[in-house]
Amino acid sequence: MANGMPPLNELSAQMQQGSEQMKEQARSAIDSYFGFLRQSVASMPSGGTDLGEKLKTCADKNIAATHEHLNKLSQVRDFEELMRLQTEFMESQMRQFSGNLQDLGEAFAKSAASVPLSPGSVNAFRK
Fold it and tell me: What pTM was computed for the model?
């Protein structure tokens, strides 16, 4: 070109390539972040109880589901697809929450039932 500028189609291709590189860097950062979260949860002590293990399992499942959802969102092409994915995710999270609540309630009841009560501790609740 006479003015020293590259043609528009070259600029467009460069912008597309730059955009793809930025998306890949963002995905890599998200993957690293969620990997760190999962490692953090895995390294937390559970206290050797069923309740503690269930809490860790629930947290890990939630992290994995959110990570998967973000990966899907990064590939959305239009608003309709975005809304469909978001609705499916929220419905899935509500089902998972309900199941987690039931599992944690059962584990809590089991843990509470296994705690021995001394005669003095029963009287403390009657006051």
Answer: 0.73
